[in-house]
Amino acid sequence: MNFTGTSQSSLLRPDAACSARDGDARPQQTPQVKLQAVDLNFYYGAFQALRDVSLTVHANRVTSFIGPSGCGKSTFLRTLNRMYETVPRTRAEGQVLLDGENIFEMEVAWLRRRVGMVFQRSNPFPKSIFDNVAYGLRINGTKRKSVVSEAVEESLQRAALWTEVKDKLHASAYDLSGGQQQRLCIARALAVNPEILLLDEPCSALDPIATAKIEELLFDLKKQCTIAIVTHNMQQAARVADYTGFFLLGQLVEFDETPVIFQRPSRKETEDYVTGRFG
Amino acid sequence: MPNLWQRRKVVNVAMLSLTAVFTVATIGILLFILGYLFWNGARSLNWNFFTKLPVPVGETGGGMANAIVGSAKVLALATLIGVPIGFLGGVYLSEFGGKSFSSVVRYMTDLLNGVPSIVIGIFAYALIVLRMKHFSAFAGGFALGIMMIPIALRSTEEFLHSVPVALREGAMALGASKSQAILTVVIPAAVRGIVSGIMLDLARVAGETAPLLFTALSNQFWSPGWNHPVATLPVFIFTYAISPYPDWHQQAWAAGFVLLTLVLVVNVIARLFLSKGFSHAPR
Q: Is A125 helix (H, G, I), strand (E, B) or coil?
């Protein structure tokens, strides 16, 4: 069974990808290719979690991945910064090209600096708010105090958290609410100026108000970086994403511009899923 | 069935009272020891105890200053030997060790923990005292240091293990290497637990007597450096308590009281340290 059908082949050619559309917030010029997966296969021991996944992530766009639990969407996200390597007996085959360079041949610390990640459950370090955001800079060798504190302020502002925490930067990160903690984790990821930000179900543990704040944030963030988000929430994908990929049983069933996926998908499986017939 | 119901009620009350009685007995034994030691020890305690050397039988006014300093020396050396080995071993087991290798090491560590202290004393005696041809503070510290390794190792391992994987991933997702993540995130998150574990470990070996009897021996005078027999509180308690002199019995009570107080204080500090740590720990 091969799901990798016709609908995504046009997207592998970036020039054909962003056809004319009347989206007001979206710039009209053709987006650049930022990241490209080519025939990506992934294994947990003997179990194959991804089968021949090929897709293109465009610069300064939000790309979302949807699909039922266990379909491989989070696994796919975790290959993009090689986070899977912390799990023993995992293996990736194929290519992922970041600006044309294969990530599997890169120094992993360098890759993860360029491709940041925000996790499903907020995971601030048991340190102060300031030290959380400064962490990435410090381990990467930035020691100058003025540089660090400037970057901390800028990152907190980009994550729309600055006004809420500017008077208690040295309080514990655990004093913040759940939604604030997740925005702190976004600020922490932004502090090292990643080119791509991966978000793995970032709102699944948050209430609707905190979720709305983070979604709003993504609109601003994509001006400066490329965003890939995994979500269980289809409305969220429809709201925030420019492109959406639908995963099922480790395969990328369909990948296209978000309105196409939700309004006139070309595959039956996609239609069944987005209309809520299963999943 | 009123009969059955009645019987259940009786059995219930009987079992409840039985468990309650033994619970009270357990606490009672501890309180009895504490009270008895306090009654006898505090009465015999005076300033001289902390400042003077022991005096010959018949004279009054002697103290155990040398044993207090000696115990501190031996325990300091034990910490210096036991904690680095236990701590680094624990870091390895928790963060780097393969599954099967770790379980073997863990099992052997538990065995080492179960080795009777007198056997560890013989080991230190054979290895150090026989070779150097005399008893020494060093041999005593070495024996206690070995006794500290298993608990230092296991508590380090357990507290590191309890640090959520999410924190390690968070660090590595920012480009930290594994060792950077361990040094800058994992160990700081667990440090309170590790320190309190080591303090409890220290409190446990502070009362050990058997391994000191034939390593550090004892000494009626000040013991310079590490190369001479040295007086320690537990060994003094032993020597003084089995002597036939009432004066010495009083001194032994006082020494027991001081030792127990130190152990209790360390225990309480360690627990406070740990509980305070949890308010800041990952949820």
A: coil
Q: Which of residues 39-98 of B touch A (CB under 8 A)?
A: none
B254 band by pLDDT with thresholds 50, 70 and 90: very high
Contacts with A116 from chain B: Cβ below 8 Å: 173-174
Q: Which chain A residues are closer than 8 Å to B184 by Cβ? A: 135, 138-139
| Contact yes or no for A112 and B175 at CB 8 A | yes
Closest CA–CA distance from residue B280 to any residue of chain A (Å)? 6
Interchain proximity A136–B180, CB inside 8 Å: no
Neighbouring residues of B110: CB distance < 8 A, sequence distance ≥ 6: B150, B154
> Under 8 Å CB-to-CB from B112, ≥6 apart: which residues?
B146, B149, B150
Q: Measure CA A23 to chain center.
A: 22
Nearest-CA distance A124 → chain B (Å):
7
Place of tokens 């008893």: B135
| Chain A residues near any Cβ of chain B (below 8 Å) | 81, 83, 86, 109-110, 112-113, 116-117, 119, 121, 123-127, 135-136, 138-140, 172, 174, 185, 188-189, 192
Sequence-distant (6+) residues with CB within 8 A of A188 are A124, A132, A133, A135, A136, A155, B170, B174
Q: Which residues contact A250 (CB under 8 A, 6 or more apart)?
A: A42, A48, A49, A50, A51, A71, A72
| Nearest-by-Cβ selection for B173 from A117, A121, A172 | A117
Put the strands of the sheet holding A33-44 in their side by side order: A47-58, A33-44, A90-98, A101-102
ipTM: 0.83
A142-183 pLDDT tens trace: 889 999 999 999 999 999 999 999 999 999 999 999 999 999
